[in-house]
Amino acid sequence: SIKIRVTVMSFFQFFVWGSWLISLGGYMGSQLGFTGLQIGSVYSTMGIASVFMPGLLGIVADRWVNAERVFALAHFVGAAALIVAARVTDFQTFYSCMLVNSLFYMPTLALSNSVCYNVLTRRQFDVVKTFPPIRVWGTVGFIVAMWVVDLLGWTKSTNQLYVAAGAGLFLGCYAFTVPPSPPFLDETRKKSLVSSLGLDAFVLFKKKNTALFFIF
After folding, report:
1. Confidence at 187, pLDDT banded by 50, 70, 90
2. What is the DSSP letter of 20?
3. How far is CA 183 from CA 23, 69, 109, in A?
4. How many C-beta neighbours within 10 Å does residue 139 have?
5. What count of other Cβ atoms lies within 10 Å of the Cβ of residue 107?
6. Integer Cα distance of 113 and 9 in angstroms
7. Range 10-36 burial, b when 16+ CB lie within 10 A, else e
8. Quick one: which of 62, 65, 55, 75 has its CA closest to 169?
């Protein structure tokens, strides 16, 4: 039953994303009249958020707060941002809402995995064998969300944002019912803040090949 529980979580984790990721560009262009540059900048918020937010919320989950609670709160904030975005039409406000959504949604990709690993490990499952079939249902959730939005004719409607927000709110509530994933205090106490942020990885730039790969 615990595998089914985390499978549902994985499904809705990507259902939230699939509800708008592919179709939002059409909505912004046809209904809001945004330019190509503006549409591209909205999508770039995911890249901006991915640079630092997963690390920051990861530290919170590792050191102070249960991972499933951080996961839930992040989805609540992201859902609220999507609801506001569905109600605005000017670029600056819409961009700000989508940036907030990205800042809190992108970390949940890693937090979802973290919760799954934690729960499965505590139940004595072999994570290497058990997790991949669970994660596959995340891809299924993404595809189902695309189908729902497309078949209902909502690809150029704010309804796609409301679907995503509704799924996010459900997932946030659902996360509180998942077995707890407390911080790994014994492990994190041994790490410095620099190590937790991953900054000690910069030593790899001493290797020419690594530096060239990163630059390009």
Report:
1. low
2. T
3. 37, 11, 18
4. 13
5. 26
6. 10
7. bbbbbbbbbbbbbbbbebbeeebebee
8. 75
